[in-house]
């Protein structure tokens, strides 16, 4: 059971990361829209590592252990598998978006918090109250709404039966749910430090995506290195807050709060870029507020 202080601190980390990532998503769309997504992923991850290295270096200098006292081979393999699944989730999502309409794929790919609850319940024995569960559903639906831009609200769900890109979007959501639960295990149960996890997570993803990015590297990025550096600062900050959130509260509580980044991004897009469907984005934000209220109710 999650206590008041623990929940309050962990929720603050999760909501802080949502604010950082939501602003980054807006920044991404504003400045990187013309670059191949894999190229941006490799470069921003690399700059994120560079920006985060001083944090890890300070941890070493202060004498704080970076690894758990007993970090077994099984736990090392589990860490590497988590990075691999994360990379597969990103690849699956990019493939779904590239082969199908964003208005169908994006809402489905954002429902991963729904899958986290049964995974944590059955495999980790995590307790989530009925009110928190209701808040998780509300927050997840709010993210779905924020990513919706089509003719019918439930068209993406109905297309799951026949539309292959929608099915890939659902697969990416399931994979991301596994990643989020795995992060909770790594950072809480195994007690891997954020100072290590942020580096190896982003480093692993960058290395795995380099071959794909290299095949699409047809743009000159040297004139925008400062822009990528700012993106790296966003990533370093956001990943650190995400790691602190998963180390503090269950993934079933943290994930829907972190996913609210999508609402922040689309509201910024509506206000500053004049994007469509702004009214439904505001309604999604209102639903999200109610969801947050239920998720963060002290137990």
TrEMBL record:
Keyword annotations from UniProtKB, A to Z: Membrane, Transmembrane, Transmembrane helix
One family name in Pfam for this protein: EamA
The keyword Transmembrane appears for this protein: yes
UniProt keyword annotation of Coiled coil present: no
Record-given protein name: EamA family transporter
Domain EamA: 10-147, 168-296
TM stretches of this protein: 6-28, 40-61, 73-94, 115-146, 166-187, 199-219, 225-246, 253-272, 278-297
């Amino acid at each position: 059971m999650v206590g008041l202080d623990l929940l309050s601190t962990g929720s603050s980390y999760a909501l802080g990361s949502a604010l950082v990532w939501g602003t980054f998503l807006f920044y991404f769309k504003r400045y990187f829209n013309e670059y191949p997504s894999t190229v941006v992923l490799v470069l921003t991850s690399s700059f994120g590592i560079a920006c985060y290295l001083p944090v890890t270096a300070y941890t070493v200098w202060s004498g704080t252990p970076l690894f758990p006292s007993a970090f077994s081979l099984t736990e090392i393999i589990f860490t590497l598998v988590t990075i691999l699944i994360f990379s597969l989730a990103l690849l699956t999502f990019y493939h779904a978006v590239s082969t199908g309409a964003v208005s169908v794929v994006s809402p489905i790919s954002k429902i991963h918090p729904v899958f986290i609850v049964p995974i944590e319940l059955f495999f980790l024995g995590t307790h989530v109250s009925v009110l928190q569960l209701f808040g998780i559903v509300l927050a997840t639906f709010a993210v779905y709404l924020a990513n919706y831009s089509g003719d019918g609200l439930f068209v993406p769900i109905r297309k799951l039966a026949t539309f292959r890109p929608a099915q890939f979007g659902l697969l990416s959501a399931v994979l991301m749910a596994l990643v989020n639960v795995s992060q909770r295990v790594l950072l809480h149960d195994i007690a891997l430090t954020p100072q290590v996890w942020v580096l190896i997570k982003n480093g692993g993803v960058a290395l795995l995506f380099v071959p794909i990015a290299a095949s699409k590297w047809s743009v000159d990025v040297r004139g925008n290195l400062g822009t990528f550096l700012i993106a790296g600062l966003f990533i370093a900050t956001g990943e650190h807050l995400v790691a602190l959130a998963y180390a503090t509260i269950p993934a079933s509580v943290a994930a829907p709060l972190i996913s609210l980044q999508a609402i922040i991004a689309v509201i910024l897009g509506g206000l500053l870029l004049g994007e469509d469907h702004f009214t439904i984005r505001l309604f999604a934000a209102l639903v999200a507020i109610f969801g947050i209220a239920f998720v963060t109710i002290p137990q």
